[in-house]
Design a protein that fits this description.
flavoprotein; 3 domains; 18 helices; DNA Cyclobutane Dipyrimidine Photolyase, subunit A, domain 3; about 45% helix; about 450 residues; Cryptochrome/DNA_photolyase_1; mainly alpha; Cryptochrome/photolyase family protein; chromophore
Length: about 450
């Protein structure tokens, strides 16, 4: 009697270069691909609205691809530890495989499940698939974790290079008697009242085939303009691979080797390194989304929140052209150019004096590529409270940034055209005065008793 293998999929919604799937296929038994929507386990962060939209379509694409190869995708909802065990029982599965996760709550869930399943005689194995260098394998000379990017990346590049990606399987044979599955539509991942996802549908096509097509196009054409124009939001020179990596429609190994083979991807590969550094930091600091990495910033005197200022920022109604353009691009497409992300974040924190956690939560809800590491990591970097952070006194002047990176106003004209009219809106705050207020507040941080840094261990 065959004992099926379960592949528990998480942020790895692909067939190519999926080590957990390959391990299941190598058992030469029927394979059950299982996705669990876990919004109940302690410490697991619920997905934002844009992420839920992407997840729906990526799962639909993956289900179609599995069906083409003789398999099927099983969908279940609930606490992962319970739901996976139920699936093992329902399928009389002999093995469970997954690709590793690096958040604190996720690691606890996975470790507990691995122990309990093995105690029941089920084969369990996990694999490295979503990062190039697993966090515990990259250490300083003293054996601790890194808190500065440059030496971290040098250590990565001195290590054995990332493995070659695994080929896509031609067949994924499921069991003769499939186990029960939820209907994807019943999960209500798509917005309906109102349906605000029209811009996302026009901008994106989730799923592994589209991801691989974008990868080919980028390294065949756009990489030639990347180093020169990547900071210009209207240039279209960025890879737009971030949501593909976030959902695992592409593995970082696939992207890395495509870049190396192109022979033109030096700077781009270092951006992959920054992504690695974010996951390295999250692994060693699981509370990255809620606590300052540099503890002295706990003393920052955030003023009383002005809800009208926060809402103006969220809706792109601040009266500051580049900020408004970026926030409207985000709302419309679920995406924002990276340079503009830094500018809009700096404006919220250092001109509106609003806690970085408010902005991080908004991006979590509205970005299709927000993940548990990169989103809070980059917000803390801008705030000055994170690993290898920009100094707090570095305030991105949105007017100077627009002159430098959108000199002809193409980006602003696309997303906030009223700012180029004869009667543009007035800014809700004075940039110079609020910058000074932010620096004055930072003086209180410097005067606070030294408490050390979580990044230093």
């Amino acid at each position: 009697m065959p004992s099926p293998s379960i592949v528990w999929l998480r942020d790895d919604l692909r067939l190519a270069d999926n080590p957990a799937l390959r391990a299941a296929l190598d058992r030469d038994e029927p394979v059950i691909a299982l996705y669990v929507l876990d919004e109940e386990s302690d410490g697991v962060r619920a997905l934002g609205g844009a992420a839920r939209w992407w997840l729906h379509h990526s799962l639909a694409s993956l289900a179609d691809r599995l069906a083409e190869r003789g398999g099927s995708l099983v969908l279940r909802r609930g606490p992962a530890a319970r739901v996976v065990r139920e699936a093992v029982t329902d399928a009389s599965a002999g093995a469970v495989f997954w690709n590793r996760r690096y958040g604190g709550a996720e690691r606890r869930i996975d470790a507990g499940l691995k122990e309990s399943l093995r105690a029941d005689g089920v084969e369990v194995a996990s694999f490295a698939a979503s990062v190039l260098f697993e966090p515990w394998t990259v250490t300083t000379g003293s054996g601790s974790h890194f808190s500065v990017f440059s030496p971290f990346w040098r250590a990565c590049l001195a290590a054995p290079p990332p493995r070659a990606p695994l080929p896509e399987p031609r067949e994924v044979a499921g069991p003769k008697h499939p186990i029960a599955s939820d209907d994807l539509g019943d999960w209500n991942l798509l917005p309906t009242r109102p349906d605000w996802a029209g811009g996302l549908r026009e901008t994106w096509e989730p799923g592994e085939p589209a991801a691989r097509g974008r990868l080919r196009d980028f390294f065949a054409d756009d990489i030639g303009h990347y180093d020169r124009a990547r900071d210009e939001p209207a240039a279209g020179a960025t890879s737009q691979l971030s949501p593909r990596l976030r959902w695992g429609e592409l593995s970082p190994h696939t992207v890395w080797h495509a870049g190396v083979e192109s022979g033109r991807a030096g700077k781009f590969l270092s951006e992959l390194g920054w992504r690695e550094f974010a996951w390295h930091t999250l692994f060693h600091f699981p509370d990255l989304a809620t606590e300052n990495l540099r503890r002295e910033f706990d003393a920052f005197p955030w003023p009383r929140l002005k809800p009208t200022h926060l809402e103006a920022w969220q809706r792109g109604r601040t009266g500051v052209p580049l900020v408004d353009a970026g926030m409207r691009e985000l709302w419309e497409t679920g995406y924002m150019h990276n340079r503009v992300r830094m500018v809009t974040a700096s404006f919220l924190i250092k001109n509106l004096l609003i806690d970085w956690r408010r902005g991080e939560q908004w991006f979590w809800d509205t970005l299709v590529d927000a993940d548990a590491a990169n989103n809070p990591f980059n917000w803390q970097w801008v705030a000055g409270s994170g690993a290898d952070a920009a100094p707090y006194f570095r305030v991105f002047n949105p007017e100077l940034q627009a002159k430098k990176f959108d000199p002809d106003g193409h980006y602003i004209r696309q997303w906030a055209p009223e700012h180029l009219s004869e009667d543009p809106p007035e800014p809700i705050v004075n940039l110079g005065e609020t910058r000074k207020a932010a620096l004055d507040a930072y003086e209180e941080v410097k005067r606070a008793p030294r408490r050390g840094s979580r990044a230093e261990g």
